[in-house]
Every structure is written in C-alpha cells, then in structure tokens.
Amino acid sequence: MLKIIDYAILSSHIYNVSQGNKYGIDIKPIKNGGSIPNGWTIVTDVDPYVQPANHFFAAMYLKFSNGRPIDAVTAFRGTMSNDMDNLLEDYDAWISDLAGDGTQDQTPAYFPQAQRFAYDCRTYLIQHFAGQLGPMNLRYTGHSLGGALAKLIALHGFPGKAIAFNAPGCGHLNPELEDLGKDYVSDFIFNINARYDMINKIGKTIGNLFLVDVPNDEPEAKAILEKISAAKIRDEKINAYGVADKMKTPQEALANDIAGFSGRMHEYTSAVSILKTQKDFRDAYLTCETEKDKAHWYEAKEKLKSCHLIAEIKAYENVIIAQHSIENMIHALTMPENERVGYRME
C-alpha cells in the first residue's frame, strides 16, 4: 500500500524526469518489452507526443515486484517557473479567484490534454498488463497545477484516487460537484496542503484535507494569511450590514463586484508590509539605498520607489515559494513524528 510520501516523491520527480534517483528511490525508465527492474519505473511509451519540453507534461509510474506491476500512478507536472504559458495559467487562476472570492475559478487550459493522457494510461495498462494490474488500480497525483489536474481527472469519469499537494481547490469548477455527497468525494480526493500556503487557498477545497506544518518561512506566511483573513471578515461584515437587505440592479451588482475585487487586491498588497521586518527584505532595502546614491538627483526618487517595490514583491514571492514548494513539503513529511505535522480531515 502506497504512503503519502510515495505520491509526494513522484509529484516532485515529474518536474525533472532526467533525475533518476530521487530521495533514495531509483526511478528507471522502461518501455514495453524491455527488462523490468524491481521498484519504481517511469513508462516512456504511453504517448510519444507528451514530452518534458511541452507546456503540459505528465507520466505514468509503475512499481514492480518480482517482475509484476503492483502499483500504477499517473503524475501531472505543475507550473514550471521558466514556462510563461504555465505562469499565465496560474495568474488567470489567481485573478479569477480574486474576482469572485473563490466562486469564479476556471478549469485549467491543460485539462483536455490531461484527460487524453489519463485515457492513454488506462489503455496502456489494459494492453500490456491485462490480468496483472487493471486501470481501476491507477492513481493520480501532482503538485500545484498538477494536483488540480489530478483531482479534476478523478472527478470526471476516471476511477481512481487523486492525491494532490498544495493544489488549488476545484469545488466550483463543475456545478454537479456541489450535489456530490461529502462522503462520496472523500472516497477519492485527498488534499495534502501546507497549512499557510497561499496557492492552495485558491478556490473551494473538496474531499479530504490533510494539513502539514511546513517550517520554511512559516511565521511570515501565517502573518500574511491572518491579515488577509481579518480583512475579508471585516469586508463581509460591512456587506452584511450595508447591502445584504437591498435589491441591487445589474449596474449596482457590477459596481459591487469591482469594489470587491479592488478590496481583495488591497488585502494582498497591504499584507506585504508584514515582510518589511524580514532579513531578505532589509538586505534588499539597503541595496536600494546604495543604488539610489549612485543615481542622478532627479532620478533617485523614482528609482528608489521602484527598487523598494521590487524588494517587497521578491520577499512576498520567497514566502509563497517556501510554503508552496513540493521539496519543502517532502522534508516536512519526513520529519520525526513528534516534530512534524498538524493533521485534520474535513
């Protein structure tokens, strides 16, 4: 029986499939008909057109024992920081969530490709391992965007569990999901989330929720989320007393949506001020001051302002990455039990 850490390692390996050894697990590539080693392998001939250089990438992993497959997992790759198409997909998800406060999430553009690949994986198992490991034994996993794709695959007609790490929620992406019983969804959706990660707060989380305390930049991430949450609670109270009992015209509703978007954007930007006590920001701030002294007097003010903004954004980005990272998640999961996790199922 696979453990959470097994899925986490595969969700990490999919980002760099050329790295055979990952956390002590030697993952070897195989093609049908070749020699089959014991342990984990990555199947290289499910679909020759799905390659690491593409915007969308996924792979099927098989675990063998005595020449027989005993586990099958399809891992979907998340966002690559050097892939502008991936980054725009994440940005669209964040903006749609910000605009609708979790009610206007968009299905990832890569979902049709994920569906085709999941179908190909099932077909591959039927063709090459019939009677040994059927398509019903296939599991899905992924980190971030990859985790969202894994959950959507499991929710849209592909039997099998989905184990997602720091993935956005997808509860609003299909109205029918609202009608699915909590117990039904809990049978096959598992969210493994860093407690203070911001990306996994996008959208509506459904299924099982497993919270992990990731120590990397945890105090800063906690402070930011608490400030954002406090601002949201304040805005909800204002709306409840100010407009809840009024029938709004379409124009008023649009104005309210725009105001809500602006307010939520302000919540994010104002929360960055917390990071001004962070060492990375202070170091960058001093660098800004040094660069200002080199600039001509009439350029100095604007250069300093821009430099401070970049320093704030970089500090914010560092905190998000620290909590969101699949590598930091793995390290947290492998810490001793008495140091490691908070645990909650919902």
Overview of the molecule:
Helix 3 crosses helix 4 and helix 6 (about 220-240) runs antiparallel to helix 7. This protein has helices spanning about 5-15, 85-100, 110-130, 145-155, 180-185, 220-240, 250-270, 280-295, 295-325, 325-335, and strands at about 20, 25, 30, 40-45, 60-65, 70-75, 140-145, 160-165, 190-195, 210. Helix content is about 45%, strand content about 15%. The longest helix has 28 residues, at about 295-325. It has 2 domains: about 5-215 and about 325-340, Rossmann fold (3-Layer(aba) Sandwich), CATH 3.40.50; about 235-320. The relative contact order is 0.11. The two termini are about 25 Å apart. The strands form 2 sheets. It has an 8-stranded mixed sheet, with helices on both faces. Strands 1-2 form a two-stranded antiparallel sheet. The radius of gyration is 23 Å and the shape is elongated. It has about 350 residues and is an alpha/beta fold. Strand 7, helix 4 and strand 8 (about 160-165) form a beta-alpha-beta unit.
- Going by CATH, the architecture of the largest domain would be 3-Layer(aba) Sandwich
Number of helices: 10
Largest sheet: 8 strands, mixed
Under CATH, the topology of the largest domain is which? Rossmann fold
Helix percentage: 40-55%
Give the distance, in angstroms, between the N- and C-terminal Cα atoms.
Answer: 23 Å
Poorly predicted runs are 243-247, 250-263
Radius of gyration: 23 Å
Mean pLDDT: 76
- The main sheet orders its strands as 3-4-5-6-7-8-9-10
Number of domains: 2
Count of DSSP strands: 10
Q: What top-tier CATH class of the largest domain fits best?
A: Alpha Beta
The shape is elongated
Class inferred from helices and paired strands: alpha/beta
Strand content: 5-15%
The helix/strand series, from N terminus to C terminus, equals HEEEEEEHHEHEHEEHHHHH
